[in-house]
Amino acid sequence: MAQLSSSQLLEGKPIKVLLGNIPVCVIRVEGKVFAVEDTCSHSEASLSEGDVAGFKIECWLHGAEFDLRTGEAVTPPASIALKTFAVVEDGDVVSISSRETA
To answer: What are the domain boundaries of the chain?
Structure first.
């Protein structure tokens, strides 16, 4: 499990955290925190360096977009969904679990 302070998460600004040796992109959108694997499923680009628009994050390298709620690849060139991770926010502590969300 990875933990970070809620104050580290600014609205719409992705950050990368390590969950063991797994890089995870964590983002607050509309007050809710989402966690998806940080590496684009199309290339080896870090999604935490991408742009967020609504509930989508765009890979800076080739422009593929992913839904932060489901991990679904919504625009080419990506076609494989990202893994998503369980998030629990309790007061000022945000916990990211290695358990994939359904």
So the answer is: 2-100
- CA atoms within a 13 Å half-sphere pointing along the CA-CB vector of 62: 15
- Quote helix, strand, coil % in the chain, to nearest 5: 5, 50, 45
pTM over 0.90: yes
Are 56 and 67 in contact by the 8 Å Cβ rule? The answer is yes
Amino acid identity of 18?
L
Q: Cα angle at 28 between 37 and 20, to 5 degrees? A: 35
Q: Which CATH architecture has domain 2-100?
A: 3-layer Sandwich (2.102)
> In whole angstroms, what is the distance from residue 85 CA to residue 102 CA?
9
Question: How far is Cα 86 from Cα 21, in angstroms, rounded to an integer?
Answer: 17
* pLDDT tens column, 35-58: 999 999 999 899 999 999 999 999
